[in-house]
Amino acid sequence: MIPVTEFRQFSEQQPAFRVLKPWWDVFTDYLSVAMLMIGVFGCTLQVMQDKIICLPKRVQPSQNHSSVSNVSQAVASTTPLPPPKPSPTNPATVEMKGLKTDLDLQQYSFINQMCYERALHWYAKYFPYLVLIHTLVFMLCSNFWFKFPGSSSKIEHFISILGKCFDSPWTTRALSEVSGEDSEEKDNRKNNMSRSNTIQSGPEGSLVNSQSLKSIPEKFVVDKSTAGALDKKEGEQAKALFEKVKKFRLHVEEGDILYAMYVRQTVLKVIKFLIIIGYNSALVSKVQFTVDCNVDIQDMTGYKNFSCNHTMAHLFSKLSFCYLCFVSIYGLTCLYTLYWLFYRSLREYSFEYVRQETGIDDIPDVKNDFAFMLHMIDQYDPLYSKRFAVFLSEVSENKLKQLNLNNEWTPDKLRQKLQTNAHNRLELPLIMLSGLPDTVFEITELQSLKLEIIKNVMIPATIAQLDNLQELSLHQCSVKIHSPALSFLKENLKVLSVKFDDMRELPPWMYGLRNLEELYLVGSLSHDISKNVTLESLRDLKSLKILSIKSNVSKIPQAVVDVSSHLQKMCIHNDGTKLVMLNNLKKMTNLTELELVHCDLERIPHAVFSLLSLQELDLKENNLKSIEEIVSFQHLRKLTVLKLWHNSITYIPEHIKKLTSLERLAFSHNKIEVLPSHLFLCNKIRYLDLSYNDIRFIPPEIGVLQSLQYFSITCNKVESLPDELYFCKKLKTLKIGKNSLSVLSPKIGNLLFLSYLDVKGNHFEILPPELGDCRALKRAGLVVEDALFETLPSDVRERIWRA
């Protein structure tokens, strides 16, 4: 016997697969059960009861005269005798009457079998078996796509995900929020959406609409009052479901094997239905109650012709008509299924009704097998696809991420990350998060917000709570912003820094920040940047004072010239791309600071000499070899800082003496061999950097620089220092390391303000004890070999250590 446990798998799978069984599949399943019962019932009758009963026929008299006597004898022998009359001795005995055949039981059985095999029509014999086989084929066709390896794996995976999505607390929460809207709110939302499509031509629309927020309803901003409604475990489970749905969608939408198999099995059932109706209608009349049997077994039984009775003919006839009715209904249902399959495309599925009902406007339409399964589910219960759609929405996913993010980053945890940045502002750096926590906007003391490598940053209207916010840094972040938040930033934001990989990552709303004072752009720009429409919008930044572009520009953008009237500092840091056509610099009359770094400049641009307000010039990492044009700097009366470091300059022209307003001069990392004495006629110099050159001699005229506070000749070839150097009594930093010095003058003690001294890498044997007179010098500020430091007297060493 088969144990009941063997059928457990069928009872377990059926409830799972039933969601993919529309009403016609369920109906045909019941029809199949009814037809199966007809087949089983007929087969049981075939086994349990006699199939046919036969008797020999009476022989008719022959017309042949020669056989009259034989026939007479045969008739006489077969003529029934009159029944015996009851005798007085045996009154109860009654003699049986009938046609005697002289056949025994074995002969009758033999005759029945022979006639059953040879005389009975095959349809009457095998009808119940045909019913059973056809019904099993129908059942196999109806469920084959659930068992085929190529389709069953997709179905099982889909049903598993569907059940989890249906029961997920996140689904219930997302739908309950949107279902709580009244009709007026829905109408308002639709009106707002339609208006947002028409305001693109206006300035406000052009700022925000490029990063469209139509798919981000305000209701999907996480409400802090309900943030705890979903615990951390449920949030992580919902997050995992989103990832599963994404991967499953990519996998299933690649093909349409489920649709193809369902169509094929339906077509096969229709063809089989037509075949069954055809041959059954023609052969059902062959099921007869009386059958004539003519078999040549006379030598064994003495008879050749028999009359047989098919005992189940009447019942089989009724069952066949009943079976044909069931098959007809089954076939008509299959024809309706084909109509449903081809009436519209089932390889595309639209969530339009879900979008209208829930207000989640970004639910995407699906195709191929994914669409087909959703169509099948709709026939079972449309609520399944409605709840499943929540996990196809990017907005819903972002909201879930936002909720998990808020639970992870509490205000107390964020306050622990606060630090002071280079602009002396209280800054909160957030790196590589899944989004921007709403809890950030609870830190009202925040002055600077730095976001790095964060995708899908959404700045809500709650940013208005940060009254002290003045600086925003976006490094490789994609940012969307609501209109109220943009209005706040327009009024309050002073500094914006954007680092990007592609120009399309530049937030278009930044060009409307009318109170922005500093803009820092870091990323790859087009070489023909002047034709870029995006940057032309810089003209709207009326308050911009500082502009820094670290990129690969080949010429100064026209957009920069448009803000030249109020621009005070401009920095262009190229990646080695040659910067040409610098005549636009002449228009920047109010420019006080200019940095042209790594721009492959071979000469000092002549346009620079027209910047009469210029105070600082930095030409670092260019290809300058000759700086004869330096004489033109005499017209720049306000120029105090000149940095020509990291170039290929071989000499300093005598015209340098005319730059009497210079206070900071940097010639480091060049190829200078001789220092002209005229250099020291710039007696206002406080900072002089000559490190990393080929200088061998320091002129004694250096003593003229009474304001000198910083002097560096590190990594040169100087063999001795003039005593006049120690007349610069305001000197605080002296770097003479990595030279060829052998003696350090005792006059070093005259530098009372000296706080940093680098003598490492020379040929000193001892240090002068007068070094102890430098009261501001500490051990941390003295860069020297340990062995050389030990040559100082112990009291001097102790004083330096204690300082």
TrEMBL record:
Residues 1-338 form the LRRC8 pannexin-like TM region domain. Its main location: membrane. Coiled coil: none annotated. The chain crosses the membrane at residues 30-48, 126-146, 257-279, 321-342. InterPro entries: Leu-rich_rpt, Leu-rich_rpt_typical-subtyp, LRR_dom_sf, LRR_domain-containing, LRRC8_Pannexin-like. GO terms for biological process: monoatomic ion transmembrane transport. PROSITE patterns: LRR. GO terms for cellular component: endoplasmic reticulum membrane; plasma membrane. It is a multi-pass membrane protein. Residues 191-209 have a biased composition (Polar residues). It holds the Pfam family LRR_8. Keywords: Cell membrane, Disulfide bond, Endoplasmic reticulum, Ion channel, Ion transport, Leucine-rich repeat, Membrane, Phosphoprotein, Repeat, Transmembrane, Transmembrane helix, Transport. It is found in: Cell membrane; Endoplasmic reticulum membrane. Belongs to the LRRC8 family. Heterohexamer; oligomerizes with other LRRC8 proteins (LRRC8A, LRRC8B, LRRC8D and/or LRRC8E) to form a heterohexamer. Homoheptamer; inactive, likely because it is not targeted to the plasma membrane in the absence of LRRC8A. In vivo, the subunit composition may depend primarily on expression levels, and heterooligomeric channels containing various proportions of the different LRRC8 proteins may coexist. PANTHER family: PTHR48051, VOLUME-REGULATED ANION CHANNEL SUBUNIT LRRC8E. This is Volume-regulated anion channel subunit LRRC8C. It comes from Neomonachus schauinslandi. The gene is LRRC8C.
